[in-house]
Amino acid sequence: MLLTRNATPAELIQAAALNHISWFSENAIVANGEVENQDGLTVVYSPASDPSALGEVILAFPQMNEGDSVGAALDVALKTFRHKKVRQVSCWSVVPTQPSDLAARLVARGFSWGWQPHWMALDLEQALDLEQAQPEDFPIPAGLQLVLEEGSDWDVVGLPYYEPSDAPRLRALDQQEPRKTYHFGAWLDGKIVGHSLLHVSDSPLGVAGIYNVGVLPEARNQGVGRAISWAACQHARSLGCRYVLLNAATQIYKRLGFISLGNGQTWWMFRPALDMPPLDAHTVAFTEAIGRGDLEKLKALPLPHDLDVPLRCKMTPLEVAACLGQPESARWLLAQGALPDVIPLCDLGWREQVPSALTTRPELTNRLLGAGGWTPLHEAVLRNDLELARLILSANPDLSIQDLQFKATPLGWAQHFGHSELIALIEQHSG
């Protein structure tokens, strides 16, 4: 059933979630994977297209009732797939989550906080017609051909979201009855230069979703991505779809008429964490209590040996409290002796405490925190926060420290992002 009536933003976000669940599930099924749904938790195991590579597990948009059964269900899912050949387990969710403490449950079990999907929607009844647009409005390379592919067995290197080993899976999706997935190729001078996938879900909120838009590096900035995306939209219209949804954050889609619906949230556990023994019940309960702001539970549990060591989720307890918006947990941790790290203080809305914290403990400026292992000054650069950078620089940090992920100094980050004021400020302080 397709959604053809006027829909609210909340309905469209739910439709995006259902479309993603269908997309994840269909990909797993044609790859001989597994899809399980129990008590509102959809678990999708998808083997890799390449037999020598690792697959993945997705906890797809949980819709679970509050209560202890949530933790038990997550424990069962992790136990089931911990020993499979998977490179990662991810959880995707709409916001607000259901249950409301989903983030606390996941982080307590070692999931790292991930990126935010950005849902966008196009109402095809109100969409412009690119065929009627002026060439200067939406230029594309001369001779570009847009093709609905059947099989998509391409000998190409460097095309995002495509590997030759994907061909059997894509053929299987093309041959499904009823067909839900359509693969489009952009050809230029006899060579494949871009592609996109359209997946149509058949739930009560059935919509079309666009996935895996990719263009070869040498063909970018010429309108290929926009053209191959619009080919998918036109096909969705021919199938009777009113809405096309996608997860993206680029201006390309705004120019096509897509509007923003808001963000979701993801969490990730990668192979190194999966190879570790499951966390003990005490650590899980302690982290959950922080994430829920449950002071009674915190007071009843014995304290960890060191409150300033990152947990399995790669955040310190204070970072967990800040990330999950639990100021009472943060106050309790600080009262127990946790270090007043700069970024958690800012995230809790306590920036006025930063100067005194740095005066008392200037070494805080050099602590590597977060999933990427970077300093507070790195984070200030990432946020383009000139005021925070000044506060941190006043404590004379070691400007030669590199983050653990990209191996770059704060100045290197500022240069990468092109933050001219921060570049000048750091260079002035260094000089």
Distance between the termini: 65 Å
Largest sheet, order of strands side by side?
7-8-9-10-11-6-12
> What is the C-alpha radius of gyration, as a whole number of Å?
24 Å
Oligomer: single chain
Describe the overall structure.
The protein is an alpha+beta fold and 431 residues long. Helices cover 36% and strands 19% of the residues. The protein contains 17 helices and 13 strands. It has helices at 9-30, 69-81, 102-108, 167-174, 224-238, 251-255, 271-274, 281-292, 295-300, 317-323, 327-335, 342-347, 354-360, 376-382, 386-393, 410-417, 420-430; strands at residues 34-38, 41-46, 55-60, 86-93, 112-113, 118-123, 145-149, 181-188, 191-200, 208-215, 243-247, 259-263, 265-270. Strand 1 and strand 2 (41-46) form a beta hairpin. The longest helix is centred in the first third of the chain and has 22 residues, at 9-30. The chain starts with 8 loop residues before the first helix and ends with a helix.
Question: How would you summarize this macromolecular structure in one to three sentences?
Answer:
The protein has 431 residues and is an alpha+beta fold. It is 36% helix and 19% strand.
Keyphrases for this structure?
single chain, 431 residues, alpha+beta, 7-stranded mixed sheet, 6-stranded mixed sheet, 17 helices, globular
